[in-house]
Structures are given as C-alpha cells and as structure tokens.
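ok trying again, last paste got cut off:
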Amino acid sequence: MEAAQAERRLSAILAADIVGYSRLVERDEAGTLAAIRKLRTEVIDPLLAQHRGRVVKLMGDGAIVEFGSVVDAVACAVAVQKQTASAQIDEPPERRIIFRLGVNLGDVVVDGTDLLGDGVNVAARLEQLCEPGGVLISGTAFDHLQGKIEAALDYRGEQQVKNIARPIRTYSVRMDGSRQHWVTGAGRRWRLSFIAAAALVALVAGIGAWIHLRPVETAAVAHMALPLPDKPSVAVLPFDNLSADPEQAYFADGMTEDLITDLSKLSGMFVIARNSSWAYKGKPVKPQKVAEDLGVRYVLEGSVQRHGDQVRINAQLIDAISGQHLWADRYDGTMSDVFGLQDRVIRQIVGALSVQLTGTEQVHAAEAETSNPAAYDALLRGWDHLRQDREDETLKAIASFEKAVELDRGYGRAYAALAAANLRVVVSYWEAATGAGFEHAVERMKKNLAKALEHPTSLAYAVSGEVLAREGRYEEASAVIEKAMALAPGDSENCIAMAKVLNASGRAAEAEQVVRKAMRLDPRFGPGTLRVLALSLFHQEKYQEAVDTLRRVLSQQSDVQEDYATLVSALGHLGRRDGVQDAIDQYNVLAPKGGYEQLTVQEMGWWWYDDMFNYNDAYRDRLLEGLRKAGVPEGAGTDLAYADYKRLIVKKEDEYLVQGATEIDARAAKTLHDRGGAIFVDVRAPGDFNGGHIPGAKNLSVESRLSKESLATVAGKDDEVVFSCQGKHCPWSAYASAKALLWGFTHVDRFAGGFPAWQDAGYPTETETAAGQ
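nice, full thing came through this time. structure:
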C-alpha cells in the first residue's frame, strides 16, 4: 500500500518576533511579560480574530500565524504595527514592545495543527530582514495584493535567503501612509526610515530574536566521526551574505572567520578550524550532519547583512545532540561598532556554554584591533584575496593591506597580514619573485613584520615563527610560535607551524603529536597538514606509513616537487622500485621553466621544502640515503662532501658569509665589471638568468651545472671569479663560493646582492636573447 500523501494547501503566513526581547526581559522580566500579555489581550488577539488569523505556534517572543487570504494577513500586520505603537505612546522608548513582521503566500505542508515547508520558512526569513516596526512581504504576496489594499508598498529588491534556492522578491509596507512609491535602484534599497530605526535600536542596545523554524534533527554520539572533546565543542558555519550586493560576501566571510579566530583563542572551548567549517559553504546542510562529520556538539550558524554603514548579524547556536536551539538573536549596529557586535555574539556563546574566561582572555576580549572601520574593511577585502593563494590575488591583497595601514598606522593585524602576503611571494615561483622581486618582497616582509610585532597578534607571531624557522633559528622560532599558540590555543595552523619546527630540529615524534592535534581541530585537513605528518613519519623511519600518507597528499595536490623527492626516498629505504621512476619523472616535469633539470641528491642536500642549511643533520642524511638507495643520480659538483663546504659558510639570520671569499657590494661589482678581467658567474636557474643578468656573466646553475669541470671551462684557478645569485637572502652564491675555494680557486668574490642589487642600482643588464645577438 502506498504511504499517505502529505496534505498541502496554499496559505498566507505571518511570522513575527519582538525586537530586543532579551534586553527587555533582562531589564524587567515581570514588566515585559505583563506588557506583552496586555498587548495580546487588548490589541493582537482582537485583530487576529477580526482578520480570521489562526495562531499556528508561539515560540518565546515569536509567532507563526496562518490566514486564508493574503489581504487579511497584510491588513492584520499593518493594523498590529499601528495599534501597538499607539497603545504604547506614553511608554519610554526603551520599554516599548516593537515587532518585526514578515508575510508570505506559499505552499505549506499540514502536520496536525502545525504547518511546515517553504511557505513558512520564507515568511520567517522575511521577518528576519524586516526593519523594527515594519512589515516585509514576498513577491507572491504582493502579486495577490494589487488593487485590493490601500497600503503603499516599496520594492526592496531580490533577496537570497538561507536554505531557499531561488531569490525572493521583497516589498515593504509604507507605514507612514504616504502614496505608493516604487524604489527600483539597489542603492536605495534601505530608506532613511530604516536607518533611523536601526540607529534607535543601536542606541538602546536592542537585540532582536532570530527564530529559525527548521526542525533540528539530533546527532548521535555513536555516529560521530571523531570522539567528542572534553570541553564545549563548536563548529561555526560560514555566515550567509544577506546584503543586496553579492560583492559583500567578503565581509560576511571575514566576520565569520573572525568569530572562529576569536572563539579559538578561548582555552575553555574546542573550535573547529576555518578550513573544515568552510567545506559546508553554500551547501544546504543539517547541523546534525555537521556535528557528526566534525565531532562537535554545538553548531553556530547565521547571516550578515550590510548596507553602507549599517550592519546586522543574525546568529543562532544549536545543540546538535539534543536538537535544541540554545539561543537565537539579531544584532544591529554600525561599522564603527562592528567589534562590539562580534563581541556580543561571543559573549552569548560563552554564556550559553558556561565557559569560564581567564583573566588574560577577558583583557584581550575587551581590546578592539582598530578604531577605524574603513581600515578593518580594507583588511577583510585583502584577506579575501589572500585566501585565493594565487599571484594576482596576492598582489591585490597586498594593495588592500597597504590601504589598511595607511588608514591606521597602528593596525598590528594589518601589518602582520602584509608580512604574510609578502612572505608568500618570497616562497613562490611567481613572476613577482623574479629578478629584484624576491629581494624586494623579503625587505617588505621584514619591515612590516617589525611593525606588526609592535602590536603583536597571533598572526604576527606565526609569521615571525615561520621567518625564524626559514633562517634555521629553530629555538627562537619555537618560542615565538608558542606565543602565537598562547594567544590562539585552538588555531590549527599554529600547530602545523610548530610541527614543522619540531621536524627540522630533530624532534619528529613530538611533531607527529602536534600535527595530529591540528588534524583534530581541522578534521577536513588539506594536503599541507598531511605533508607535515608524512615528514614526521619519515623522520621516525616509519617509511610505509610515510609512503601511504604521501600518496594521500599527492591525490589532493600534485604540484609540489619535494613531495615526490620524499616519496622516492621513502621507497628507497623500503627497497622498492615500484613507483620510483614515475615519481622522479613527475619531479622533473614540475621543475620551474628553465630551472632544475632533474632530481639529484646534490639538489635535495641544499633545497628541500625551502632550505636544508640548518635542518637536522641526521634527518637530512636519512633523506639523501633513501634517494641514493632509489638510484637517484648524485648531480653536479658532488666530489665535495656537504659537511666540508658547509663549514666555510656562516649563516646569520637569513644572510650568508663565506670564510675565505671577499664580500663585495653593487658598486664594487660594477667597478670590477668595468675594469675587465673578472669572471662573473651567475648561479641562478637558467630561466631566471635568461630573463635578465649582468652583461657578460656566465650561467652555471648551482643545482645542476656547477662542478669543478664546468667552472674550469670559464675561469682559471688564479682568475678573479665573482659569484652571484638571487640576492643576499639566497644561499646559492655562498655554496658556489665555498666549493670554488675547496676546488683551489684563489681569488673568489661573492656579490651577495646579486642581480637584484645590480638592477636596483640602475646598472645596464642584458637578456640571453640580447647576449646571443
């Protein structure tokens, strides 16, 4: 027998809530409840009876009412707003009961005395968007009203509302009774009456209740993908952008990310990292599903609506295990109070979950990162660009961050963001890092990082830790990252940064523990996290686990050369040849254009995941041993042991000195060049060299072409040889100079500034094409 078909009907639905209900009750619970009862008895119930309205359900300060006619529904809504205002004319503004009302005409599902479906949900969404004291109706309701009601209506544009695929046309009722007027321009979507009302709400600290009517299914602890933490655990879903302008999505995303960041700073909470929360962005998903996927009890969801200086945040916290809404509120304010709005949301969460803040956390919670709303807006725009992780978007991010610090010269987080963006350029193979671009990015990164550390944030410490680690200053890096972790205990990226430092300094077992903590904070972790786990396993000689993990990395991201080198070495230690040649071939295919010609032991001895100079010697040797076992060629210049020429090199911060070589600057290099007789050897990759170099220079790339024999073809042992590379922060000219000294060359100069310093000085350059003409 077929299941009985659900009963449906077309109904006009009115959704209502009280503005600032939480504030009113907190101020005077008995008086507020008495005032509501009086309005219901004397105003609302008689109007519902007059217009044949049926109360479907009451929910604290909210209600759903069904009408057989949309004309009755709108007429009743208008009468409710006018008569409740008249009944409270003698009440002080801060004590008045003010409603928001939304009306929709749509299909509903009958469930006993209850009504379900989009017809109800759309009305609830309209109520959320409505200004205090107003009535907002849907396009379907409007279509049935024309010529049947005297109220004036203003077109408010199409709205994309939560869990409704199609945009909803919206119209507001002109409550002042003036003649009908159609507003079609998006820029006039919110009229002065709304702005005035929103300002009033902000003045009296009103908090509107946001009632989310969708039933919440309960999550089962037995179905959790991960064990529940021993403290309140929360996933913050990306807030919807309910602004008329879709371009404002960056603002909603930035606000959500800041909520995640601020909550993750609280030691008494467990907060899922942004990466995992963002997996649900733009998808209709049940809180129960999110909770089970991520192993949390609570789910926070909401929306952000912005128009000019006005900001509205809707948020609700759901206990997925019990299926209850712990609270749902609306927060109205201006951009100048945007941090206050965020703080109010966080206070609600902390209070609902009975989280105790430490004294330090209370102090930090009271601090606003900037007093300039435009600077904060520029930072959010920049962060939206930086998240794309592309060259063009990173350059846009830098421009936005520069605008932020221009607007607020003391904006520590903006300086930290600038440092992070420039660091991304430094570690890239982008065009922006070629020629002098590399050195310029390094200098900008260091300058902005110094400014960021004057007003330190977790981000500033995290960037500082990465820079120190790249310089081989692992003990200092570890201390700085610990500061970042103290400011943001739940930030998974800080855990990954710490695990990298532990790996490089010979503490792989500890690194594995820390990276697994990051994986719990970020259950939908990406290839970067898996990569760090693979290294910690490799360094512990857990080679099969390392191979399995690396194959997971490569299934998600296949464009990182060093992953293939690590895989080859692990397979070599296992004595396996299957997959070795494929990995070597893929490594070679990914070589930068005109760059490294093939995977060699020599290259990996210098440059594996950025720099091997200060890497733990035992771990470095383990990598090279595995490459040799896998049959990887040694490479050029391997007649010298790494330890021998490394002894001649001193690394101070991120710069190098070579004992026995003469350090020269750009002016001295130009003098030698003009005098003639000196041999200039550029050890950059061929692609960089071909794009521009010192006139007459020879190219012997240190990774694949520099050997005792190749150097002898361009210079005699008693000739003056000048080595240069990518700039003073590049190690290659130091390696080349040290090798030349050990090969018996007697007059070795090192031009540390290299081609970037030459180019910056305005000296003549040439390209390979011009040189060959």
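cool. The two ends are 88 Å apart (CA to CA). The domain at 642-772 is CATH 3.40.250.10 (Oxidized Rhodanese; domain 1).
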